[in-house]
Amino acid sequence: MDDAQSHPTNTREFMAMWNAVTAEHLTHKLAGVLQELAGRAPGAPAMDAAEAEALAPLLVRAFHIASSPDGGPHAAVQFLAEYAPESGA
């Protein structure tokens, strides 16, 4: 086990760690929500856990973009629209 504990050394490092933990939590929670939503949408195919876990981080990133001062819903949708071609999907 590593004896060095990961304590932030300054405010910037603290905020980076906080944002990472928050994004991880939201991603995990959103993955469960996505599965439930897919089950409630009329005619929508079921979404398994792996699909929801793959999609959740992209949506969390889009939410961050939408909430940023220079972002908004249009910027978030643009991010999602441009993701597939960049990823090779």
Summary tags:
89 residues, mainly alpha, 3 helices, flat
Number of structurally distinct domains: 1
- Whole-number radius of gyration? 16 Å
Q: Which structural class should the secondary elements be placed in? A: mainly alpha
Q: What fraction, in percent, of the residue positions are helical? A: over 70%
Helix segment tally:
3
In total, the number of strands is 0
Strand content: under 5%
What is the helix/strand order?
HHH
Note down, in words, how this protein is organized:
Helix 1 packs across helix 2 and helix 2 (49-67) crosses helix 3 (73-87). This protein has helices at residues 11-40, 49-67, 73-87. The chain is an all-alpha fold and 89 residues long. The protein has one domain. The protein contains 3 helices and no strands. Helix content is 72%, strand content 0%.
How does the SSE layout of this entry go?
Elements (H helix, E strand, L loop, with lengths): L10 H30 L8 H19 L5 H15 L2
Helix pairs in contact: 1-2, 2-3
Summarize the entry for a quick read.
This protein has about 90 residues and is mainly α. The chain contains 3 helices and no strands. The chain has helices at about 10-40, 50-65, 75-85.
